[in-house]
Specification:
This protein is of the alpha/beta class and 408 residues long. It has two domains: 13-252, Type I PLP-dependent aspartate aminotransferase-like (Major domain) (Aspartate Aminotransferase, domain 2, 3-Layer(aba) Sandwich), CATH 3.40.640.10; 253-324 and 367-407, Aspartate Aminotransferase, domain 1 (Alpha-Beta Complex), CATH 3.90.1150.10. 36% of the residues lie in helices and 13% in strands. The protein is built from 13 helices and 14 strands.
Amino acid sequence: MTNRITLPSDQDATGRTFGPEELEAVRQCLATGTLTSTKGNFVKQLETKFAAKIGAKFAYACSSGTAAVHCAIAALDTEPGDEIITTSITDMGAITPIIYQGAIPVFCDVDPHTYNVTAESIAKVISPKTKGIVVTHLFGNPCDMGPIMELANRHGIPVIEDCAQSFLTTYNDQYVGTFGAVGTFSLQQGKHITTGEGGIVTTNDPALARRIYLFINKAWGYGDAKPDHYFIAPNYRMSELLGAVAVAQLDKLDAVVESRVRTAAALTTELSGLPGIETPVITENSVHTFWKYCLRVDETVIPGGTVALGAALKDYGILCAPRYIQKPAFECIVIKDQVTFGTSRWPFTLARPEATDYSRCHFEGTWNALEHVLVLPWNEKYTDEHIQYLSTNIRNAVMSLTAKVAVG
């Protein structure tokens, strides 16, 4: 047994980078007396700095990562019954915006080792009704964007990149969020940088930028010669207080990412060769920025697989998550039972039968991934001591579980 230590948590100050910089930014914001982004400067600073940071022409801040995805979907201006391809392993906040816009979420399978969609899995579900493809760079590992963009461009389908977990992740030396038509980011509590809740939408397309900006602002044409509300849209604005915190957080992003990448590499080295454990598979020519650190567990080597190993690690205070999500997104009640607007089931009433066929045979990679993944907590406050604690106790837990079988 090793002496138990408490790991930093991204749910409180132990695992977050808040300091005097954020306090000073909030003080300055309050001193102005202007808390709405339509009149203030902090949100505009965030947008300008973030766009420059990742090399996008436009960036717009909004109230959450879900709002960011909603802005991206709305920018495509789909017709009711149009289809948007998305991943089977994702947060519901990335799916409900599709339904709110009257489109049908069409789920595609994932690679069981990277947990990401692939060009091959996307190609299997493209139809004449496909009007968009959402690719999620899960856990900080980029999708293989070369083949995906070639496929999308060949079909003339815009790509939305969900980068909620992937700040400063790169693929072929280019930041994610700049490959597709639109990129979306989350500033939720546990992300690389945070304002508690918040989002950012990026694009290089002026026409899409205009629609995104309008959608955030109730489709009111601020600055237009004769402004009006041009279409149905919510108020998704970020407040100046959150903008102030975000500007201070953005200045720390490089250091945050460097720390996460460095400590993840150290843990991978420590766990190398451990029976029954596969360390993160990183997309070729990419930088994985580790929102979380995932282990793939072979239950034929480690009895009980992810559940048993997860339970053993919790005894050491390592609060990991077997399976990440308990079931694919399409098995959630809202999708499975089509619980949408009243009892209408709309827009699923417009769907092709094939678009809502969630048979297990279509999602072998998804089920494989969820059955074998163990998600470890991760943040930028991890030290060499924490990595040693993790590696030692993961080894201890694995050896203890495998020894029981050997004895039996």
